[in-house]
């Protein structure tokens, strides 16, 4: 073997932890059964067996549309909206003789609105298309024949191909790792594109293929892989490989996922297993749950109401029209002789009045369609996108340390940010930094460490009741080493060798240095050993062990080397421990173990885990330290520290051989329940442990968390914390971050009672369930009675075990009734599934807006269940951010996001929508009044193009400016007066009272405009020639008044003027006059009745200008007067602040 390759292994910092050879002596394989039918012929992609299986190619498409489907699919999406569908139907009817206006004037505005949205959709999809092209046309080296590798585009890869991927390159498909540039077949993989995690993952090839490290070695390579079918589980892979007439089990350790990147490894060889949309990353690329804001849902109901009004007006008009048409020609007499009923069309046939009424009804549906704002949807989309840009660019929500601004990943929920009633928050990494520091420990019943933590300081200040901060202990760092803040002279500087239980202390820190998956790396510049750990906890432990004399120096596939202090000689010595097994941590086991063999040949299992699972696995001989350790753990929990219990046991050779045999058997079981079988075998050896002690690490509160929670509570927002911590830890962190306050009474629901513990020891499951339910029900009932009898604020604290029963169908409503009456709720020891279930319960039970905030993959279910999901871009990766609606870098930014941007967006959108309906009712009802005035002749009061452009040009821009720029109060006052936020929580600005009052204002404005204009113009000459005003004069005058009124009314509604708002309001009014002048200047064939109407009729006439001024002022005076009275005698909270 070439020396370079051997040297590369020695320099490698990448090691594997899976030890022991596998065999198929007892194969419980399900290969060939449902879910396990995939067969891959490696290096034989062109063979008949491969071709007949017809596996998917490697071309990936993430676009929503194709060139063929864009128009039909996009049009379908647009016309799913009821308003757009209505305008499509009415536009189609304009091509019939029923139309009261020209078809062109009806269709063009619809085309503009639909076209604008389709262009937006098309641009977004084209960007996705460009990304697809860039990915599909990447190139990778693929084995052809005779050990020769040539470049091939990703999209042309086939199942069974052998590929060679170089350092820092992405994997083109899901690959089976065959070998790497390292002799032991390991590689480093970055999975940020999959789960957002920045720490590197270790992968290892099957031992039999790890020697294939040169191109030519694959000339005759043949193997058959049988494995599971394509699925979305990123963390599982079940299969086997047949190579040289032997079978070898496959696991996730050998699977390299598409989208991952090769790091710190020169190259790897892999066989393509899943391609294209069969890959796990594509199987996971489902759309997130569709979320719509409450205002948007309510807006649909308003449109239905307007449809009802439209139908009612059309029906009423048609009845009168039918009656009058019937009376037009009776007994040979023509009542309205000037209409020539004896020679009328089918639309006005007195001999068929019922059909005439039906035709009139259809024509009215088209005519009164202007009640429905055609540009509403597209205007709201534009406004929300611009609002999102302002959120993204807010410098006050930019976190310089990580260079992360706020990022609104969707603009659909902007106004929901101003309506949040309940916040459900994770703790670790969300309220805290997820930056662990080793601060205290308990060894052999003795507590060590004197550090005064930040959480203890915050807790002391909360409980000090006004004492001077100088009287409280100060938080002082004892070390500059990251993750280490331990101070105790009894332990430091090798002083621990003088302690009574020095041997236990040695074993304690040795366990910290051995029981982990961290990788040591030597900094070439300083020569210092650094650690690449999978979690902040592990990094803190190995750093603490190093600082106290047990340095992890080197790690290989089968051994760990420590520089540790010898208890006898008191000198540093190097000891090598043979690593036999790593029994990894998961959320079910809540612990991890390693099995090692020391230099004396002793077999040891070293275990660390949560106290809830560790104490029950201790040997009875641990009793002498157990009580003291429990007391210390509770003390650490009271200080807000995270604790782990450490234990070990010496194994007999026979016991380990039996364990290893069973473990290999279940690992070779190619079945869906293999993981549970493995856990069952591990369970048998992790028992009768000897207690060493407990660790205590501090997870610091993020900056500004107490102030932020305090402000949110002042805003009337209820805050729930869902955490996996012990109850004591959660309660004290609750006090430290102002979630719990002095004087707040606590309702604690827990099953840690003597009665339940007796039943649990007896193991009678039915009795346990019955007693637990009765206990929970009793505690909930008692809690409700406590609240009924007191006026004080309450906090509810419940543990995970109790929560399991509280979320049962027969009890969850009672639990929710209790919880919503409490100011704060803390759910301890809660699992990811329980977090999602609690969020669902709160959302469905309260029917108010819920916001979930978290930073880790275990928070994804909670974020997707809530109305709004906010992801923290912390140290647990980006999976929560990728599943969220809005991403922020720190919890403290939630204050500004809700109280400032949420309040503004809610107010802007609510006012904007109400104004839209007001201006359309004002315009649409004048059409009805004019038609009634003309005996329901289905004749519009305005020119066709006046009708069409009302919503598109003359009244749309001011409302967009209001939705983007208006502020009732500044951001400073939003934060200074958090009670302002209750406007959104109570939905005051978009209540039915406010909506109907706006609608009534629209009806009043229409009545005022119509009757004042008709009264001012009738029975008198309009100009110097003595001509009276006809329809061609009345229509433009009414239209001018409406343009002035609706634009001035929005000016009266605006609290914060900018130059853009001035430009849009006065520009829209000016544009109407310019349009009227320009439209009248074109040929009469196009301008019809509007030909030269402004230049020759309106502008020269004083009546036009006087009437416009009089009608506008008279119509606006009632609105202005009502607003002034309300402001003077019944001011709202924000008006008081103004």
List the keywords:
1138 residues; alpha+beta; 9-stranded mixed β-sheet; 9-stranded antiparallel β-sheet; 38 helices; 35 strands; elongated; disordered N terminus
> What's the gyration radius in Å?
37 Å
Q: Summarize the biggest pleated sheet.
A: 9 strands, mixed
Total number of beta strands: 35
Determine the mean pLDDT.
Answer: 83
Characterise this structure:
One of its GO terms (cellular component) is plasma membrane. Involved in transport of phospholipids. Its main location: membrane. This is Phospholipid-transporting ATPase. With 1138 residues, the chain is an alpha+beta fold. The chain is built from 38 helices and 35 strands. A nine-stranded mixed beta sheet has the order 16-35-34-33-17-29-32-31-30, sandwiched between helices. A hairpin with a 2-residue loop joins β9 and β10. The chain is elongated, with a radius of gyration of 37 Å. The termini are far apart. The N terminus is likely disordered.
């Amino acid at each position: 073997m070439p020396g370079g390759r051997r040297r590369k292994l020695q320099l490698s910092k990448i090691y594997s932890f899976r030890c022991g050879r596998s065999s198929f002596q007892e194969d419980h394989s399900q290969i060939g059964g449902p879910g396990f039918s995939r067969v891959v012929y490696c290096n034989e992609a062109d063979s008949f067996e491969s071709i007949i299986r017809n596996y998917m190619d490697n071309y990936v498409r993430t676009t929503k549309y194709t060139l063929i489907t864009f128009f039909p699919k996009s049009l379908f999406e647009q016309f799913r909206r009821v308003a757009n569908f209505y305008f499509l139907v009415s536009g189609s009817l304009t091509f019939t003789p029923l139309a009261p206006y020209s078809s062109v004037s009806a269709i063009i505005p619809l085309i503009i609105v639909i076209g604008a949205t389709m262009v937006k959709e098309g641009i977004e999809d084209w960007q996705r298309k460009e990304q697809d092209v860039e990915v599909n046309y990447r190139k990778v080296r693929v084995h052809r024949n005779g050990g020769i590798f040539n470049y091939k585009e990703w999209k042309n890869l086939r199942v069974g191909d052998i590929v060679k991927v170089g350092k820092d390159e992405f994997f083109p498909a899901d690959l089976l790792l065959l070998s790497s540039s390292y002799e032991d077949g390991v590689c480093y993989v970055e999975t940020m594109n999959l789960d957002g995690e920045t720490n590197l993952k270790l992968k290892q090839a099957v031992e039999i293929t790890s020697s294939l490290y040169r191109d030519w070695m694959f000339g005759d390579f043949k193997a058959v892989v049988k494995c599971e079918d394509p699925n979305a589980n990123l963390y599982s892979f079940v299969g086997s490989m047949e190579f040289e007439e032997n079978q070898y089990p496959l696991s996730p350790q050998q699977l390299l996922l598409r989208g991952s990147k090769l790091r710190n490894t020169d190259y790897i060889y892999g066989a393509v297993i899943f391609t294209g949309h069969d890959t796990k990353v594509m199987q996971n690329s489902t759309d997130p749950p569709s979320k719509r804001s409450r205002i948007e849902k309510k807006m649909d109901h308003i449109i239905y109401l307007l449809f009802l009004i439209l139908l009612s007006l059309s029906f009423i008009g048609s009845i009168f029209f039918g009656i009058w048409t019937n009376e037009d020609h009776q007994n040979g007499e023509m009542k309205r002789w000037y209409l020539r009923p004896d020679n009328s069309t089918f639309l006005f046939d007195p001999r068929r009045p019922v059909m005439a009424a039906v035709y009139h009804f259809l024509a009215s549906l088209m005519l009164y369609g202007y009640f429905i704002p055609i540009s509403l949807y597209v205007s709201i989309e534009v406004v929300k996108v611009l609002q999102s840009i302002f959120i993204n660019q807010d410098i006050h929500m930019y976190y310089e340390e990580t260079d992360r601004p706020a990022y609104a990943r969707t603009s659909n929920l902007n106004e929901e940010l101003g309506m949040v009633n309940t916040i459900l928050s994770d703790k670790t990494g969300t309220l805290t930094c997820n930056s662990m520091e080793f601060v205290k420990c308990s060894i052999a019943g003795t507590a060590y460490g004197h550090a005064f933590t930040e959480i203890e300081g915050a807790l002391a200040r909360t409980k000090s009741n006004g004492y001077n901060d100088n009287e409280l202990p100060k938080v002082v760092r004892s070390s500059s080493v990251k993750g280490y803040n331990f101070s105790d002279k009894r332990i430091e500087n090798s002083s621990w060798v003088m302690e009574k239980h020095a041997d236990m202390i040695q074993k304690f820190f040795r366990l910290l240095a051995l029981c982990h998956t961290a990788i040591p790396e030597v900094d070439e510049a300083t020569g210092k050993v650094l650690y690449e750990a999978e979690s902040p906890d592990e990094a803190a432990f190995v750093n603490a062990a190093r600082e106290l004399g047990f340095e992890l120096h080197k790690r290989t596939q089968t051994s760990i080397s420590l520089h540790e202090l010898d208890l006898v000689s008191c000198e540093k010595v190097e000891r090598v421990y043979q690593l036999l097994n790593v029994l990894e941590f998961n959320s079910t086991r809540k612990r991890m173990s390693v099995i090692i063999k020391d230099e004396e040949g002793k077999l040891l299992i070293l275990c660390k885990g949560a106290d809830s699972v560790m104490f029950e696995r201790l040997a009875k001989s641990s009793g002498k330290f157990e009580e003291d350790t429990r007391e210390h753990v509770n003390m650490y929990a009271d200080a807000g520290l995270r604790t782990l219990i450490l234990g070990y046991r010496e194994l007999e050779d026979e016991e380990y051989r039996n364990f290893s045999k069973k473990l290999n058997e279940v690992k070779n079981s190619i079945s869906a329940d293999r993981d549970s079988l493995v856990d069952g075998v591990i369970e048998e050896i992790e028992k009768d442990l000897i207690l060493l002690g407990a660790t205590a690490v501090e997870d610091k509160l993020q900056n500004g968390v107490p102030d932020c929670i305090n402000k949110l509570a002042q805003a009337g927002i209820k805050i729930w914390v869902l955490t996996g911590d012990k109850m004591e830890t959660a309660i004290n962190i609750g006090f430290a971050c102002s979630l719990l306050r002095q004087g707040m009474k606590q309702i604690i629901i827990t099953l840690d009672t003597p009665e339940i513990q007796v039943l649990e020891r007896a193991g009678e499951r039915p009795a346990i369930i019955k007693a637990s339910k009765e206990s929970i029900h009793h505690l909930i009932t008692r809690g409700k009675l406590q609240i009924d009898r007191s006026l004080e604020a309450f906090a509810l604290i419940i543990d995970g075990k109790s929560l399991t029963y509280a979320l049962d169908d027969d009890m969850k409503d009672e639990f929710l009734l209790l919880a919503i009456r409490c100011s704060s709720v803390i759910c301890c020891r809660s699992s990811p599934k329980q977090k999602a279930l609690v969020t669902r319960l709160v959302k469905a039970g309260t029917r108010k807006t819920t916001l979930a905030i978290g930073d880790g993959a275990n928070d994804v279910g909670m974020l997707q269940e809530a109305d709004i999901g906010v992801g923290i871009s912390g140290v647990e990766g980006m999976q929560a951010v990728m599943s969220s609606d809005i991403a922020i870098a720190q919890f403290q930014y939630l204050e500004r996001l809700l109280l400032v941007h949420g309040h503004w967006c809610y107010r802007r959108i609510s006012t904007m929508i109400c104004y839209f309906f007001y201006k359309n009712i004002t315009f649409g009802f004048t059409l009805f009044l004019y038609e009634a005035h003309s005996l329901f002749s289905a004749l519009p009061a305005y020119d066709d193009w006046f009708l069409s452009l009302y919503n598109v040009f003359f009244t749309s821009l001011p409302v967009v400016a209001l939705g983007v720029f208006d502020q009732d109060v500044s951001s400073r006052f939003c934060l200074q007066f958090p009670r302002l936020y209750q406007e959104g929580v109570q939905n005051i600005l978009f209540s039915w009272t406010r909506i109907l009052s706006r609608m009534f204002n629209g009806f009043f404005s229409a009545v005022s405009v119509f009757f004042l204009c008709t009264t001012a113009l009738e029975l008198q000459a309009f100009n110097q020639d003595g001509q009276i005003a006809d329809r061609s004069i009345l229509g433009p005058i009414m239209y001018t008044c409406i343009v002035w009124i609706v634009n001035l009314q929005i000016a009266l509604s605006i609290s914060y003027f900018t130059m853009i708002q001035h430009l849009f309001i006065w520009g829209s009014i000016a544009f109407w006059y310019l349009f009227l002048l320009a439209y009248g200047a074109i040929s009469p064939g196009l301008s019809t009745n509007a030909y030269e109407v402004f230049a020759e009729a309106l502008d020269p006439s004083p009546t036009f200008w006087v009437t416009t001024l009089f009608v506008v002022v008279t119509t606006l005076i009632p609105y202005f007067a009502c607003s002034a009275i309300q402001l003077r005698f019944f001011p709202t909270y924000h008006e008081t602040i103004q």
